[in-house]
Specification:
The complex is a heterotrimer of chains A (519), B (329) and C (230). Chain A has 519 residues and is an all-alpha fold. In chain A, 76% of the residues lie in helices and 0% in strands. In chain A, α1 runs antiparallel to α11 and α20 packs antiparallel against α21. In chain B, strands 1, 2, 3, 4, 5, 6, 7, 8, 9, 10, 11 and 12 form a 12-stranded mixed beta sheet that branches. In chain B, α3 packs antiparallel against α12 and α7 crosses α14. Chain C is an alpha/beta fold. In chain C, strands 1, 2, 3, 4, 5, 6, 7, 8, 9, 10 and 11 form an 11-stranded mixed beta sheet that branches. Classes of the chains: A mainly alpha (519), B alpha/beta (329), C alpha/beta (230).
């Protein structure tokens, strides 16, 4: 709509600036790397195998996550029990878990000497192996089942309760309700959720490395790492990064046509009241919730158990690194907000899905290429180690954008729909609108977004390798150093510290967004 | 935003504060493990600074990629922690200057003639096992291949790990043209292939794997630091692949005297007697009777296998393809 | 003088045209069937609805583009108060959108609240108010904005009959005081009789020129008859 001339300009300028930063960080760094390359890269058969495996594992992981999430979401949607909301929050934990911590936990449960193998051993059954294709997919399901459950649960809660009452008054049984109410909802929600998880699994790196079990399970991001690190073939690295972008962009185009899941930060506090309950359904729901809880929380429990003995005896440098990581995470969270709010405003103001899609670019970007590109660009001017932590903060912020935008764009659209005309009529523009309308109305999604960004930043060590100097290690890097120094028990304690800080930061921000929020 | 910016500025400042002192600064590029509190870095820094009147600064991370990106403009004066597998590329970059040191008194198991890179320690690749669980450890590579397939071994990916690459060359030097057959026998026993040494070794100490690809000197850590005698290296009759850690001087350093002094310090007895227990490997120039106790008694391979730089560079690619083909079956 | 000059709005199947003037101080009810475009007419006058043709004039000058710069206060069907701001802050927005009020302005806010019968309730949040009280807060803000035109888009639709009569009475007193021009959308023709001296009929894609209320009810045109069910 052609109106609010003052408002349009400031929103547009800031939004375009923020988008510019994102495009520079993603495509700009890729161009920088490609230009530095000597000669064009060529993809070998191993690279094509990596591309095939990447697509296959992403599709398999997304499919499995969704299939498993449906019964869990249905059970959570129709059961209300004490501790339900705490459980929903806890079940979300794996999504924001640092990858290295998660892998330690998964191995402690599913490894050859893990819990399950030990139980099987009591019955004389051979230990199971978690390494290989199925290990990669298991880890991806572990990370993404919570997200899938959350998205699908929202779909369930979005069905108006009147429809369930209508169904009850018409005497519909569970299968009738599934046919008339639930399956149509799933048809709307599932494709979007599938795409999001597919995209997340597309750039998988550390999971494939640790659990892939060998060169068969090489993802594109891993191939980029090898091209860069071992062959120093920048041409091939940038070509692979371009392929990864292409895959992401192709999916993003599809995503623009499919309804994308809305409002990741929405509340899930109520259950649907239903009248079609039977004992069989109750059993089914109890099984679904129990299994999901065990699957998602046991690995976390093992990390806690393994880490506790040495936690208080950790060397001071580990706590120093933890403090550094927390500061980087806080800065990164603030930067995420500073980037995503203008982009969200631009997308809402111009009702533009293209703007939103550009904000999602980073989901398909290679952190390694971003780091290398930034190094090539900044090295002639600044001492790289001076930039180590700021660049870590900025890149982590950019990598969190897709998720924070998903929380902010629909929420901001709702605020503008409800209160935009009133604010316009009163002349609330620019800073005043931000201060008195957006910030207070967006507290919940912003708390969620800040928490997510901070937690994702805590666990990441993707870009720091080129910039680091000896004295500014972050907690994940310190964890690796402990392992490299044979100190596996200290490393387990550092993993517990990392887990606690990541979840703690998320919880604090998310809670901060909820407390005293006027609905 | 203001607070965020001052945070970032503050972070940047903390890293530059150390530079304020007016002593000359010697920048030493090193792999990440070097500068960690438990790595060899801190004691080297303290030892060298006590005699040089300078500030030794370790810059850690991906050393070779970073050097290649920086090229002639690099700020590095010295690079430490390179391995024989990357020296061909490092040499070809033209960034390094001859060391000019007398290397005749080295205690390496092979003759050292390189005029650019100086070895500061060495070890051999080996498979480590728990001697309370495996009592009849293999005494040859053939015996390893003949072990039952439910013996689980963790190795490192030769594309991302130096020890992984060393295994590739080890297999090649033992089996030559029949390396693919050896891989076919080894593969069923391989539990997983990790990115780096740390993850693999962690799996081994957690009991996930029965054996792990590491170094003959790894048990020394357990013996000296943990008084744990249960970890042993399997010593093979065919010999073990030699693994040498190197230091080199950057040609256009702005601190040539300091750089030379550091290169010389690396071969001093002070450095050499400390490196064994900080980098858990054999010093490159130290008489056996001066080794720490846990080291002196370590079983050592009778034969060191090694490829020349040119051979290694020529073998690397085909051997990798051979391994990929075998591992993808 | 408020002039709707050869206005035309097209939105898919929907269209609305209008060409009329409203005298200063007039109290005009906007009546007509559902979906005919009563709210769209108000939105166009307020500056929320772009025109495809024509213009809206105030005293012979075209209205500015920015809704806030127009000589207009508007009360919507709902979402008239920001839930996160106190009653006093919501009213204070009428004086300064950035809420940086001087001591004198704080007093004016308090006085306005007293004026609408909400004395001492400035610190409450909207969630603690009844529907009638919410409408009063919105009117207190209108009072402080002190614009010559007041647009009411059915703000009392959800109130019970007694409460609605009370609110209409309050609006009448405020108008008596300020002499503002009123345009009020309503579903209930009775509202027009109580408060308004003129009626603009919106039907069949046309916003008709205002007619005196008595004339409209004494001699309703055909569409009006249908609407009234006579």
């Amino acid at each position: 709509m052609a109106r609010r001339s003052v408002q349009i300009s400031s929103t547009t300028i800031l939004g375009v600036l923020a988008l510019g930063v994102v495009v520079c960080l993603t495509l700009g760094t890729l161009v920088a790397v490609a230009m530095r390359a000597e000669g064009a890269g060529r993809l070998g058969p191993a690279d094509w195998a990596a591309i095939r495996f990447t697509l296959w594992q992403a599709a398999a992981s997304a499919t499995l996550s969704i299939l498993l999430a449906i019964p869990v979401a249905r059970a959570l949607a129709r059961r209300s029990f004490p501790g339900r909301s705490v459980l929903i929050t806890l079940l979300g934990a794996p999504f924001i878990l640092p990858v290295i911590v998660a892998i330690l936990g998964l191995i402690a449960v599913f490894g050859r000497t893990g819990l399950i193998s030990q139980v099987l051993g009591l019955f004389g059954i051979e230990p199971i192996s978690v390494y290989g294709y199925h290990g990669v997919i298991l880890a991806h399901v572990f990370f993404n089942l919570p997200l899938a459950t959350r998205l699908i649960l929202q779909g369930w809660l979005a069905i108006p309760s009147e429809r369930f009452r209508l169904a009850a008054s018409l005497g519909m049984g569970p299968s009738d309700i599934a046919r008339t109410l639930e399956r149509p909802m799933l048809r709307e929600v599932v494709p979007g959720a599938f795409l999001v998880i597919f995209l997340i699994c597309l750039t998988s790196f550390a999971v494939a490395l640790a659990l892939g079990g060998g060169p068969k399970a090489t993802t594109v991001e891993l191939a980029i790492y090898e091209a860069f690190r071992f062959d120093f073939d920048l041409g091939r690295a940038s070509l692979l990064a371009l392929v990864q972008f292409g895959l992401g962009a192709a999916l993003a185009l599809i995503a623009l046509r499919v309804a994308m899941p809305s409002d990741m930060g929405a509340g899930l506090d109520r259950a649907v009241t239903r009248w079609d309950d039977r004992p069989a359904l109750l059993v089914q729901d109890i099984v679904a919730i129990t299994l999901a809880t065990l699957f998602l929380l046991l690995p976390l429990g093992m990390v806690v158990l393994d880490g506790l003995p040495r936690l208080l005896h950790l060397p001071d440098v580990v706590f120093g690194a933890a403090l550094r990581s927390v500061i980087v995470a806080l800065v990164s969270a603030a930067l995420t907000l500073a980037l995503s709010l203008p982009i969200a405003a631009l997308a809402v103001r111009h009702n533009s899905r293209v703007v939103e899609a550009l904000g999602y670019l980073t989901i398909a970007a290679s952190p390694l290429v971003i780091g290398t590109g930034l190094f090539i660009i900044t090295f002639p001017f600044v001492k790289p180690s001076d930039l180590a932590l700021p660049i870590t903060a900025i890149v982590n912020a950019a990598l969190s954008l897709p998720f924070t935008l998903r929380a902010l764009v629909p929420a901001l659209a709702a605020v503008e729909r409800d209160f935009g005309p009133l604010a316009d009529g009163l002349g609330m523009t620019g800073w005043t609108r931000l201060r008195h309308l957006w910030l207070p109305r967006l507290r919940r999604p912003m708390g969620f977004a800040l928490g997510l960004a901070a937690a994702l930043s805590m666990g990441d060590l993707g870009v720091i390798a080129l910039f680091a100097d000896g004295d500014n290690a972050t907690l994940p890097l310190q964890l690796f150093r402990l392992m490299a120094a044979y100190r596996m028990e200290d490393a387990a304690a550092a993993a517990l510290l990392l887990l606690t800080l990541s979840l703690g930061l998320f919880w604090l921000f998310d809670k901060g967004g909820r407390v005293n929020a006027d609905r | 935003m203001k607070t965020a910016l001052s945070f970032v500025a503050g972070l940047a400042l903390t890293t530059t504060a150390a530079m304020a002192a007016d002593k000359p600064v010697l920048q030493v590029y090193a792999p990440d493990y070097f500068a960690s509190e438990w790595g060899p870095g801190p004691s080297i820094e303290a030892g060298f600074e006590a005699q040089c009147g300078c500030d030794l600064e370790f810059v850690t991370g991906d050393v070779m990629p970073r050097l290649m990106l920086e090229g002639e403009r690099t700020e590095a004066d010295v690079v430490i922690g390179l391995n024989t597998d990357v020296t061909a590329r490092a040499r070809a970059s033209g960034l390094f200057a001859p060391h000019g040191l007398d290397v005749s008194g080295l205690t390496l198991p092979v003759d050292w003639t390189d005029d650019v890179f100086v070895p500061f320690d060495y070890s051999y690749t080996a498979f480590i096992y728990d001697n309370t669980k495996i009592t009849d450890a293999p005494n040859s590579f053939d015996a390893l291949l003949a072990m039952p397939d439910d013996t689980k071994i963790v190795i490192q990916d030769p594309r991302s790990s130096i020890s992984g690459l060393a295994l590739l060359l080890w297999v090649k030097s033992v089996y030559g043209d029949k390396a693919d057959e050896a891989w076919a026998k080894l593969n069923p026993k391989i539990l997983t292939v990790t990115k780096g040494w740390s993850e693999a070794y962690g799996m081994f100490t957690d009991g996930e794997a029965d054996m792990v690809l590491s170094y003959v000197t790894s048990p020394a850590y357990h013996i000296i630091a943990e008084e744990d005698l249960t970890k042993s290296a399997a010593i093979f009759d065919e010999g073990h692949y030699l693994y040498v850690d190197l230091v080199g001087k950057i040609a256009n350093t702005d601190q040539p005297e300091l750089a030379d002094a550091f290169m010389a310090y690396v071969l001093s007895e002070e450095f050499q007697s400390g490196i064994a227990t900080s980098n858990w490997s054999f010093p490159s120039k130290l008489a056996t009777d001066k080794l720490p106790e846990g080291f002196a008694n370590l079983p050592v391979p009778a034969k060191a296998l090694v490829f020349s730089e040119e051979e290694a560079e020529a073998i690397r690619k085909p051997a990798l393809d051979e391994w990929l083909a075998a591992a993808s079956k | 003088m408020l002039t709707v000059d050869s206005m035309r709005i097209e939105m898919g199947d929907f269209s609305l045209a209008g060409d009329f003037k409203i005298a200063p101080g007039a109290r005009v009810a906007v009546l007509g069937p559902s979906g005919a475009g009563k709210s769209t007419l108000l939105a166009a006058i307020a500056g929320f609805q772009p025109l495809d043709a024509g213009q809206i004039l105030w005293d012979t000058k075209p209205m500015p583009k920015d809704p806030a710069a127009r000589p207009i206060s508007m009360v919507f069907q709902d979402n008239n108060l920001f839930p996160h701001l106190t009653v006093a802050q919501n009213v204070g927005l009428g004086l300064r959108p950035n809420l940086r009020l001087s001591a004198e302005e704080h007093t004016r806010v308090a006085n306005a609240l007293t004026r609408v019968g909400l004395e001492g309730m400035g610190d409450r949040k909207p969630a603690q108010l009844s529907g009638g009280q919410i409408a009063r807060v919105a009117l207190a803000r209108v009072l402080l904005r002190d614009r010559p035109v007041l647009l009411l888009d059915e703000p009392f639709g959800a109130l019970g009959p007694a409460l609605k009569a009370e609110m209409l009475e309050l609006v009448r007193t405020l108008l008596d005081e300020t002499g503002a021009t009123l345009l009020m959308v309503s579903h209930d023709p009775e509202d027009a009789r109580v408060l308004c001296n003129q009626v603009v009929l919106v039907a069949d894609g046309q916003a008709h020129a205002p007619v005196a209320t008595e004339e409209m009810f004494a001699n309703p045109p055909e569409v009006m008859q249908e609407y009234l069910g006579r």
